[in-house]
Automatic annotation (TrEMBL):
GO terms for molecular function: antiporter activity. One of its GO terms (biological process) is monoatomic ion transport. It comes from the Bacteria. This is Multicomponent Na+:H+ antiporter subunit A. It is a multi-pass membrane protein. One of its GO terms (cellular component) is plasma membrane. InterPro entries: CPA3_Na-H_Antiporter_A, MrpA_C/MbhD, MrpA_C/MbhE, ND/Mrp_TM, Proton_antipo_N. The chain crosses the membrane at residues 29-48, 84-102, 114-130, 166-190, 210-235, 277-295, 304-323, 329-351, 372-391, 411-431, 452-471, 502-521, 568-588, 608-624, 631-649, 655-677, 689-707, 748-766. It comes from Rhizobium pisi. Residues 687-767 form the MrpA C-terminal/MbhE domain. Residues 131-414 form the NADH:quinone oxidoreductase/Mrp antiporter transmembrane domain. The keyword Transport applies. Pfam families: MbhD (PF13244), MbhE (PF20501), Proton_antipo_M (PF00361), Proton_antipo_N (PF00662).
Amino acid sequence: MADVTALTFLALCLPLAGAVVAPFVIRVFGANGAWLLAIAPLLAFLHFLRFVPVIARGEVVAGGYVWVPSYNLSFSWFLDGLSLAFALLITGIGTLIVLYAGGYLRGHKDQGRFFSFIFLFMGAMLGVVVSDSFLMFLIFWELTSITSFLLIGFDHEREAARRAALQALVVTGGGGLFLLAGLLLLWNMSGVTQMSLLIGSGDVVRESPFYLAALILVLVGAFTKSAQFPFHFWLPNAMEAPTPVSAYLHSATMVKAGVYLLMRLNPIMGATPAWEILLPFFGGLTLVVGAALAIGQTDLKLKLAYTTVSSLGLLVLLVGFGSEYAVEAAALYLVAHSLFKGSLFMVAGIIDHETGTRDITELGGLMRAMPLTSVIALAAAFSMAGLPPFFGFLAKEEIYAALAGGDIRALTFTSITVFGNALMFAVAFVVTLKPFLGRPVETPKHPHEAPVLLWFGPAILAVLGLFAAVFSRFTHSALSSPISAAIRGGPAEIDISLTPHIGLPLALSVLTVLLGIGVYWQFAHARLLMAVLLRSAGRGPDHGFDLAVSGLVRLAGRITRFTQPGRLDIYVTCTFVCVAAILLVPLVVYGELPRLPVWPADVRLHEWAVFLIAAVGLAGVLIARDRLTAIVSLGIQGFAVSIIFLLFGAPDLSFTQFMVETLSVVILALVMTRLRLVSADRRPPGRRIFDGTLAFGCGLGFTLLLIRATQMPFNDTLTAFFNAYSKSIAHGANVVNVIIVDFRGTDTLGEIAVVAVAGLAILALIRIRAGTERKLAANDPDSIEAEG
């Protein structure tokens, strides 16, 4: 078990290691360095592949390291059918993406930086799907948002890329805050902080009065990550990223993180009316919106991006539908979508790379120049369209078997699914047939077949889509059934093959194909119709995001101008108002006002004299007509307090107070004289009364608090500790000095740093003033006098 834990930890670290070495490898080997860099995710893939027989037997693999035992925090992972499938997709497709990026970005000046980002992204997503502890899950969840921001904004010199990256970060990062609150509620309801333990707490969570609140918070986090309506707009905009990022993002990584979370929580939060209403509703809406918007696009990547939105909606619909067949259909479609969508995105990148354009209206007749790419594209399109003999066919058949029924709910969602699948059928063949068939069209670059690094990845994924269907029994036992069992929270066995479901499911498949062919046949009219509908619908959520961000910036500006007007007197006033409130309000509200002490009768004459000197100093501060007099009077009061410390047996504290007061008087006098401030206090009477009241309130608060503290029973635990250990540990007889220098050494260092920074600030002010005076004197010798 220890070996498995160590090897799994190493496998999780391999992408991070790849991120470190990628710039150096690319600098030495150029684009061919991709072959070396692909070794890291390949080794991780092979490691997780070892667990397939174990997971297929219904077992789980867990491990990790304890981090903070007192808070039940650990760096732990948990592998079942769902997390293992995602780990294999992330590392397997990640290996192909690394190779693909080596050819796609050949010669790019920042290729090394790109590989560092893609490896960080891979490591973050891998951490999400294998994490067991909530804390580890949340850390990696947020890392996917940060790394996707870096990848989407990779071409940071373009404004569109910067905007898309910021939008993705804001939407998914904001959703992450909701998820954090949801997981905290789950922790509160179940008392556990690990996914593997949470699975057994479903009844406790569902019966909690906080269930609905936790569900909504979790759904916001999942919906923002997986681009569910109305948060779908960020995903198509993320196409500003290079195509390798798009292919990886849509097939195996971040956009499926929300779906993974919903699948993971299905045994805990599923099987409730709220779950079975909210998920199918938003999933079905996203399915239709994404497919319809895909029809209206002409950019290959945008068409595929909107179909990803649609497919994610279909997955969410299936997870929330509530039947065993729906869970099995979700498991099948999860794998099928990863294979065909990764392949199609890479094909779109090949077309763009070799022709110089992705606009479908400017492409045609590429089959002669790119025969291999056209075959790969057609194979992936067959799977996306749900046609045999590809794995997408099995998924579509299971979807219709799951949704078909006689009640109004089943009829509604079946109709939605047929409509969405028909549109995706049409888009699949528009993307893969329109560019390759027909007469050759002149393109910005002369088209030719792509190099091996570009076609190798999509070819592998297309072939896997074929083999997974042909050898469906092995695929189900190794992958599909364990995924379904993990989503369901119990045993599952999928047995669907290339033999279709005779009856209603087959009829729905035929209907989907016929509708898809019809849309494909009239695709130009369909695109025109969608353009008209979009114009009539007005601006959508994407524009709403811009309005929200600009409104937030304006609000922040107004708040900043109100709270930070640039006047020091306002800042100081606000600070002392808060101090007075913090000191006085709790004492009054909670009835903690102290008993006023009785003035001692044994005060001697010289002690009365010191008190009188302090009072005189205070009066001098209040009646002083200029600042210098006030500073000196304040020093008199401080020296009197120092003498009081001396008389009452604290000579070391008295010496410290003498030094502080001396330095304060010197520094304040230096600043006041060098800065040429207004010499007299010219505040109006109302302001003086307010400031005096505020000063009295702060002083009264400190006085009452100190009196209340001294009336509490004295706890001599620290006194005994310092008396016992000051000599033996710190080798000092003066306990106070030992506390300051040794036990509170870091605190003392901080105080010294504060004094040093304050001194540097004062020096800077004086130098700025001196420089200003020299400039004024050079331009107008009389200006200095006028200013003073």
